[in-house]
Amino acid sequence: MTYTGWILLTASLVGLSCGIVGGFLILRRMAMMADAISHTVLLGIVTAYLVTRELSGPHMLIGAIIAGLLTAVLVQWFHSRGVQQDASIGVVFTTLFAIGVILIATHVGNAHLDTKHALMGEITFVPWDVMHVPLLGEVPKATFMLAAVLLVVVIVILAFYKEWKITSFDPALAASIGIPVVLLHYVFMSLVSITTVASFDAVGAIMVVAMLITPAAAAYLWTDKLSIMLVLSGAFGVMSAFMGYYIAVWLDTSISGSMAFATGIVFVVSFLCSPKHGMLSRHVHRFGARRSKENIKGIS
Amino acid sequence: MSVLQVQDLNASYRKNKVLHDVTFEVEQGSLTSIVGPNGAGKSTLLKVMLELHPKLSGDVSFFGSSLSRMKTRVGYVPQRGSVDWDFPTDALDVVMMGLYGQVGWFKRPNKHHKEKAMASLDQMGMADYADRQISQLSGGQQQRVFLARALVQNADLYFMDEPLAGVDAATERAIMTTLNDLKMAGKTVMVVHHDLQTVEDYFDHVLLLNRTVIAHGKTEDVFTKEQVYRAYGGSLRWMKEA
Q1: Distance in Å, alpha carbon of B122 to nearest chain A alpha carbon
Q2: What are the boundaries of each domain within chain A?
Q3: Nearest chain A Cα to B153, which residue?
Q4: Residue A194 and residue A192: Cα distance in Å, rounded?
Q5: Where, by residue number, does the polypeptide cross the bilayer (chain A) (predicted)?
């Protein structure tokens, strides 16, 4: 595959997994948790690197899951002891992220892992760092990891689809009929963590938040059905990835930045044009209503 | 036979003790209203009994056994305001959620479950709204959907948190008819209720609560001016003249 092909495929995989996970993130009103986890996985990655001296897939995923769960547990712990939810998130993630940054600066700092890379990602390098996969041949490591994570995300979401739905809509009912709400919460946090860390190389900690939240928020505006919302959210993620790449080529600028910008465009278009919630359609409705009123007046 | 036994139940929210030595028993086939001032711990009592909120001490037994063994026989209707009605789903889907416990892991609800859910919606007069997105329902209709979801669970003991709060008159009638039908079918229902004017007409038992049980028993014995004043302390502004 061509260099551009790999980049587009990698970015599309980011868009898909982030879009699907993001759909449930916004329905569970946890957008801020995504922001938090996208930063704290850095600590997980650095710690995994310090322990194993390797920056390979499995170690990073495990490090990210531990960091993500630690974030979720700490936020909950402070909140249950009287700290406001948003303040609790703010305190926990900045502190853990800061530890990650200090560790990078003092112990790790090398060509493979630095703070700028962690924050902004560098998708342009992805196609050069390859591994050999049986049957497929040479595949970029990041792309392979993203494909594996997407597979896990899709399987876990589909296998527990009705459980995700009920725990997102009405956790009290879910608990009362015996669904393990707390366990599912932490499984979901793990999904967010692995999605984030797999997307890390490609888009970095800041941009991954845009991929997680914005396509899902846009999809929410278009439909009243959960399954369609998730599909749309994934599609919007892919669309943003493509759009972002070509904007970056056109303006000769950061790919991850352009992709995040593209999610913003998708959202604004959705906000203006979506049939039920969109500003434009509301305006058309109002205009239509006024016209029919005038017609009635004209008749009388 | 008592279907629910609560013994010396204590619970707190943050550092405030909300329930203090709550003890009572509920007989099968009774329709009980839980009545008390704001902050009396009515909703908390339901949540603690259902293990949705931790207790400090005390025992709760359902049908002479533990909740974990009796989960399928216990139904819960949370406050309408406790969920996000903008959630992308329709009325039928919400009712179907009541069956998720019976559907089992890794399975999808089938045609049979769908028919059951439709029948429940129909019973609440909501069959025409099955495909309606839930944000487009009125408050009363949303409450009926919640009731339909409880009915489809086919439980033996129901806890309902303010099902009559902020609903229209038609919905109030529909819900009370349903509650009486449940009672006739030998089911037991406990309802957190806020409207003192209707207690005597709607419920055969009353649990007066203000952090602890002020009085509990048949409505005519318990719902007296003196007892209600005792439960509400100085905060009662209105009381039906007997």
Answers
A1: 21
A2: 3-211
A3: A177
A4: 6
A5: 6-27, 34-52, 58-78, 90-109, 142-161, 173-196, 202-222, 229-248, 254-273
Average pLDDT per 10 consecutive residues for chain B, totaling 242 residues: 92 88 96 93 95 94 93 93 94 96 90 96 95 94 96 96 93 95 96 93 96 95 90 65 42
Using H for helix, E for strand and C for coil, what is the string for chain A?
A: CCHHHHHHHHHHHHHHHHHHHHHHHHHCCCHHHHHHHHHHHHHHHHHHHHHHCCCCHHHHHHHHHHHHHHHHHHHHHHHHCCCCHHHHHHHHHHHHHHHHHHHHHHHHCECCECHHHHHHCCHHHHHHCEEEECCCEEEEHHHHHHHHHHHHHHHHHHHCHHHHHHHHHCHHHHHHCCCCHHHHHHHHHHHHHHHHHHHHHHHHHHHHHHHHHHHHHHHHHHCCCHHHHHHHHHHHHHHHHHHHHHHHHHHCCCHHHHHHHHHHHHHHHHHHHCCCCCHHHHHHHHHHHHHHHHHHHHHC
Return the minimum-mean-pLDDT range out of A42-51, A143-152, B49-58.
A42-51
Q: Is there a contact between B97 and A168 if contact means CB atoms under 8 Å apart?
A: no
Rounded Cα distance between A140 and A144, Å, is 6
- CB of A42 within 8 A of CB of A60? no
Report helix angle A31-52 to A3-27, nearest 10.
Answer: 130
Mutation to test the A interface, candidates B66, B93, B100, most A Cβ within 10 Å: B100
* Nearest chain B residue (CA) to A157: B106
CB B22 within 8 A of CB B45: yes
Nearest-by-Cβ selection for B52 from A165, A176, A228: A176
| Closest to A142 measured CA to CA, from A131, A156, A158 | A131
Tokens encoding B43: 């909703």
Mean per-residue pLDDT, A33-45: 90
For B86, which DSSP code?
T
Minimum Cα–Cα distance from B158: chain A residue = A176
Contact present, A216 and A231 (Cβ < 8 Å): no
CA angle, residues A244, A245, A248, in degrees to nearest 5: 85
CATH number for the domain whose boundaries are A3-211: 1.10.3470.10
Domains, chain B, ranges and CATH? 2-88+155-235 (3.40.50.300)
Q: Per CB distance under 8 Å, which residues of B are interface residues toward A?
A: 14, 47, 50-52, 68, 71-72, 74-76, 78, 82-84, 87-90, 94, 97-98, 100-101, 103, 105-106, 108-109, 133, 149, 153
Chain B's closest residue to A181, CA to CA, is: B52
Task: Compute the average pLDDT of residues A258-278.
Answer: 90
Helix axes A141-159, A181-222, angle to 10 degrees: 100
Q: Are B46 and B26 in contact (CB under 8 A)?
A: no
Nearest to B14 among A82, A165, A178 (CB): A82
Report which residue type is found at B168.
D
Q: How far is A170 from chain B (nearest CA, A)?
A: 6
Q: Residues for chain B: how many in total?
A: 242
